[in-house]
Amino acid sequence: MKIFSRTVVLLFLSAYMYAENGHDLWLRNKNAVSVNVVCAKNTATIAIAKQELQQDWQGAPNASVVLTIKPDKAIKGDGFRLSQTTIQANSDYGVLYGVYELLRRQQTGEEITAAEVVNPSYERRVLDHWDNQNGTIERGYAGRSIFWRSTKDSLVVTEADKKLWREYARANASVGINGSVLNNVNANVDVLTIDYLKRVKAIADELRPYGVKVYLSAKFSAPSQIGGIKTCDPLDPEVIKWWKDKAKEIYRLIPDFGGFLVKANSEGQPGPQDYKRTHAEGANMMADALKPYGGIVMWRAFVYSASDNDRAKQAYEEFVPLDGQFRDNVIIQVKNGPIDFQPREPFSPLFGAMKKTSLMPEVQITQEYLGHSTHLVFLSTMWEEFLKSDTYQAGEGSTVARCTDGSLFPQKHTAIAGVANIGLDVNWCGHHFAQSNWYAFGRLAWNNSLTSEQIAAEWIKLTFQQHASESSDWQANFLTPVKQMMLESREAAVSYMMPLGLHHIMSANEHYGPGPWWAPKKMRKDWTPPYYHQADSIGVGFNRTHTGSNAVAQYHEPLYSQFDNIETCPETYLLWFHHAAWNHQMKSGRTLWSELCYHYDRGVQQVRQFQKIWDKTESYVDAERFLQVQSKLRSQSRNAQLWKDGCLLYFQQFSKMPIPYDIERPVNDLEEMIKNDTRRPQRPAAFSSNRQLNQAH
Ligand code: BDP
What we know:
CATH architecture of the largest domain: Alpha-Beta Barrel
Largest sheet: 8 strands, parallel, barrel
Structural class: alpha/beta
CATH class of the largest domain: Alpha Beta
Number of helices: 20
CATH superfamily of the largest domain: Glycosidases
Oligomer: single chain
Radius of gyration: 25 Å
Helix content: 25-40%
Number of domains: 3
Bound molecules: beta-D-glucopyranuronic acid
Number of strands: 15
Strand content: 5-15%
């Protein structure tokens, strides 16, 4: 009898384990009951809306839900009016978003008491895929591209492709994401040739019913590279005509094509400055080509040159003088921080500096600098901190969110982008918890005032809860500790990687472990960590005050004075703005050196704590996800230790002070770490340790 029941349990478990490979993301069928859906219209999108309701309804059994498309002034863009059994919107897409909201409320137990209007913060909520047409993904850690295969011969679209693209679109729609840039910002020009455009059309056709528009990264040198024109000067009539013809060709295939994303004159990419033209002249030329069809240009402000000028200042210096010169269908896409998606940066001063230009924030969902798909880092808290940062552009309360969502300045278009963390891994993102970052990006793009706590709670319930009304035991032993772990995870990563305003001290190329020492003689200075940490016998940190690069002057008062003064500068940004002495006294009463040591140590201890928290959840999670997360946490723990040991032993050569005796001693040798790093950058054995989807890729 005992043996029998064990077999049954095992059989049940293996079926259960398969179902829990993570592929279903936060969209799981849970004990749906029947529902009657009424809608006068029947389009592909409405059909999806109905099906979703029928598949997942958890309200009153046999209720009737009415879906109405009726314009209403209170409802903006993709927004909707929602009650327990009715959804009204301006468009089919609005209805679909309303359906996902209603189902989420049911599954997370959030009541809808009275009818509510729910409008999105941004008109365009876009994922940027850094996918190459050969199937690889720049800074991707979850397998190969879901859009592109390894060779040009395999441009043929399969049923498996289409199924996967629909699943992808559905996941996006469920959190309100309505745009996808299908190729890398470091663009390969071939994407604009007809063979590739046909595949783009096929993708667009699958994404369209879910309200997701496609965009492409366009290379500025395309007129020469594929058009055979001698120049790419944006004022040259032949060049202008080439882009107009290209836009026409694209829109003939894809009538709702979103537009272009352009990385120009940045890290070696071609651009208008190659012809002594400005970013505005380049962007406007492309914008004019897209204008007749309603397309937009997302022009990136990620520019810096190998000059002696502080890299953190350069984007501002190039773009602020151009304020007012851009067409209204150009949006300047600005990374959250002034340097480059580091674990912590102050917000880019471009937010709050341009009043006559639409700006869109760009955040990085893929964890290039935050432990790839190995570390558990919930990025929502980082984006929340950024969106809620006050720029003081129009007095107090001019948060980044308000400067970009149209509530402070009229912007013709509003948008936000996240660099995707999605690949062919069965669970899409490599780490089960990295799915929460895709989810969080969508939720914040829809509502930029949500709290990370709410987002984490929603995601945990949708992803791990077995029944809509889970027991209080589940809440206490799973929801609460796991949520806490997620909410602390980004600060923990900052602590064991780059605390107190340190930045850009990661290992070269891979950007995984520590590399504060990395500085080959012939390398561009601004690509080496010592340029950023400036450690010497006196102290550490980049002097960006009025006595240094004066980057502080790019911020409005009172931030300028606050950052400029070492006594008032928030300690989280101390070494970003100041070269502080090793014995500088911190608020805790400790010296800077000791404080640094405690931060690194605390970060490591926190990861150890996460391991304990996760181990205790074993009986609440299916085996497959439990074991994968457990093993990833072990790798994270080892890597956090390397960060701590590498950074402390390296900086100690300058501080010449002892590591406080009450914290754990380093367990790795500096020379060994440097040797390993130069020989083979530290990263886990495989980029993605997760099962791959069995596609024809
Ligand atoms: C850096 C990445 C690089 C990207 C670049 C960008 O290391 O791969 O191409 O940003 O955003 O963070 O263009």
